[in-house]
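Bumping my old thread because nobody answered last time. Still need a sequence for this structure:
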């Protein structure tokens, strides 16, 4: 392999988005142990959920908001470049409320969201049913979150693969990073089963596998654990397909092209097991039936499972490390699609200019090890 200036380990949505951003500035390569974009990123529902996912203000919310703000033009640009249609949908998200207690939880959240000037509209049950006739009669009403959009995550992944290839990024599939190589606290390359790839800059974007790659123990990367999520796709045959995403405390239903609806999901701690299980399907279907009872007669078209990369505090881990030339963009958990655009921007700026943007700072590794921020982890003996 021609030695890249920047080598990204992991060709999921996070690695691909970063490669696209860096491709005009450097010679970039990606290695992936399997096939690019076919792990967690292939499993994602495609929600760009900012308001229905964030339950407190703060850095994670700010990161989500900035990513969402950029997403639409990012998608338009990618569509223009690749001619892929990403099915970006702007109807927004309906958040149905089943009890007074749920309403209170949402009101607390929406109170601070409104201070950010964000759109949150309460719909009575009858106006909600005019918009979404198939929705259960059990609800008290619903919130309309007009700016929580969605898109086709798999098409996004394939468009990114097309885009980075056109921009000269080499993607090496079936190529596992078995060790990250360092010398005197500097990255010097990555070992794969076939060769050593020499490079001064490595970015770890290996999703749920990020904390298992040897050679960088010194940075004390906290465990990134896989959290399995299962999804079912059904065909809307017994009711008019709806335009809005439905997201609730009892699961979600996301309309896609051709009358397909994604039903999700589960959060399971079962290691690196991507089996689709009877229990997982039962749990999703029970909740979906409660949201839209007419789904009962609809055919199931597909099902799958993926592994969300969950860090110990459920925030992504981004930016530089105590090893010079080693950077992180991992742990994106439930929001990797949403956060990929802004993570790529923040991490690439840090790689290229060493800038630590205020939005990057809270997500850096030194939040776990404050001493990293003050001094190098090891005194480097440079022999002079
Ligand atoms: C069911 C489900 C629904 C979801 N829905 C949404 C959603 O609606 N919106 C949203 O924003 N997010 C969603 N997510 C979360 C999102 O999918 C993830 O946060 C995101 O895909 C993480 O991207 P990634 O690139 O970090 O990881 P991955 O897509 O897992 O990519 C990591 C890549 O690294 C490669 N790799 C690993 N180890 C090595 C190695 N040693 N050498 C070389 N390559 C290696 C892997 O093969 C893989 O291709 C969902 C996730 C699941 C499971």
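Sorry it took so long. Here it is:
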């Amino acid at each position: 392999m021609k030695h890249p200036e920047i080598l990204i380990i992991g060709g999921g949505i996070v690695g691909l988005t970063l490669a696209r951003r860096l491709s005009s500035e450097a010679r970039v390569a990606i290695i992936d142990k399997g096939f690019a974009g076919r792990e967690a990123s292939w499993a994602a529902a495609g929600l760009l959920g900012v308001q229905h996912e964030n339950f407190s203000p703060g850095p994670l919310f700010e990161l989500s908001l900035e990513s969402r703000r950029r997403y639409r033009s990012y998608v338009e640009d990618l569509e223009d470049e690749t001619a892929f249609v990403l099915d970006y949908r702007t109807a927004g998200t309906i958040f149905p409320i089943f009890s007074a207690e749920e309403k209170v939880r949402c009101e607390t959240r929406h109170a601070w969201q409104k201070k950010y000037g964000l759109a949150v509209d309460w719909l009575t049950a009858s106006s909600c049913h005019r918009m979404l006739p198939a929705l259960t009669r059990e609800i008290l009403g619903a919130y309309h979150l007009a700016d929580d959009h969605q898109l086709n995550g798999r098409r996004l992944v394939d468009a990114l693969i097309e885009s980075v290839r056109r921009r000269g990024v080499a993607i090496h599939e079936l190529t596992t990073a078995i060790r990250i190589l360092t010398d005197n606290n500097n990255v010097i390359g990555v070992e794969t089963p076939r060769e050593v790839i020499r490079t001064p800059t490595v970015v770890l974007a290996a999703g749920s596998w990020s904390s298992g790659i040897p050679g960088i123990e010194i940075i004390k990367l906290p465990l990134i654990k896989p959290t399995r999520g299962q999804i079912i796709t059904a065909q809307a045959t017994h009711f008019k397909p709806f335009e809005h995403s439905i997201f609730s405390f009892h699961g979600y239903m996301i309309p896609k092209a051709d009358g397909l609806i994604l039903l999700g999901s589960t959060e399971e701690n079962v290691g690196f097991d991507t089996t689709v299980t009877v229990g997982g399907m039962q749990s999703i279907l029970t909740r979906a039936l409660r949201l839209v009872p007419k789904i009962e007669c609809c055919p199931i078209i597909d099902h799958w499972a993926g592994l969300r990369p969950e860090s110990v505090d459920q925030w992504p881990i981004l930016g530089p490390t105590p090893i010079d030339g080693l950077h992180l963009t991992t742990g994106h958990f439930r929001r990797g699609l949403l956060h990929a655009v802004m993570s790529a921007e923040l991490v690439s700026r840090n790689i290229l200019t060493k800038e630590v943007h205020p939005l990057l700072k809270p997500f850096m590794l030194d939040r776990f090890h404050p001493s990293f921020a003050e001094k190098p982890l090891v005194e480097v003996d440079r022999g002079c």
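The chain has two domains: 6-43+154-224+313-374, 93-146+225-310. Let me know if any region looks off to you.
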